[in-house]
Design brief:
single chain; mainly alpha; 3 domains; rod-shaped
């Protein structure tokens, strides 16, 4: 009778150790492979998501740059009511710039550089004034980002404006003096003719 009691006592102990053995038993190769595949799949998915986000950000930057470029070019065009025609006007400006290059062909390097620019810009102000004004406004918006360039531009513009105003004043004075002299000569001739009769 003692033996069956020992067996009864050993059986529960054996059942507990069997359960512990099953719990502490290492995962099967299939389970290990499945977990590694899962980790690899999640890693590849993470890289794919990062790559997709990077491509989307790049495309957004590209689309934004394209929109800025097209809106800038569109803003340079003259309004329809101005009746400016860009194609013949642009050709006239190019021809004037080339003519300036031909005119200053045998001069010093500074004059050869400046003459085509001056003739082209002057022609542009005359032939396509609205477009030239729009381009000037665009250049000014870029110059405002750099105070040194902006200040130099303002100083040069004021100098040119002063030079032009002085030239206009001198030409008007010269015209007035010429008219006075012509008037004086006319009066002298009339007096001479009157005395001769």
């Amino acid at each position: 009778t003692e033996k069956p009691q020992e067996e009864q006592q050993q059986q529960p102990a054996e059942g507990v150790s069997g359960a512990l053995a099953q719990i502490t038993q290492s995962p099967s190769p299939t389970d290990r492979l499945a977990s590694q595949i899962r980790e690899a799949r999640l890693a590849v998915h993470g890289y794919a998501v990062k790559a997709e986000d990077t491509v989307n950000q790049g495309m957004n930057r590209f689309m934004s740059a394209e929109h800025d470029f097209t809106s800038t070019i569109t803003s340079l065009a003259p309004p329809k009511e101005s009746n400016e025609k860009l194609l013949p006007g642009g050709i006239y400006v190019l021809v004037a710039a080339m003519a300036g290059s031909i005119i200053s062909r045998n001069r010093n390097i500074l004059l050869r550089f400046a003459t085509p620019i001056v003739t082209g810009v002057t022609t542009a102000h005359y032939v396509v004034p609205r477009t030239t004004q729009n381009v000037g406004n665009l250049v000014w918006s870029y110059e405002e980002k750099y105070p040194v360039v902006r200040d130099n531009h303002l100083r040069i513009t004021e100098g040119v404006r002063h030079f032009v105003e002085t030239g206009k004043a001198h030409s008007q004075m010269g015209l007035a003096m010429a008219e006075e002299r012509v008037q004086g000569v006319r009066e002298a001739v009339e007096d001479w003719v009157k005395k001769g009769r």
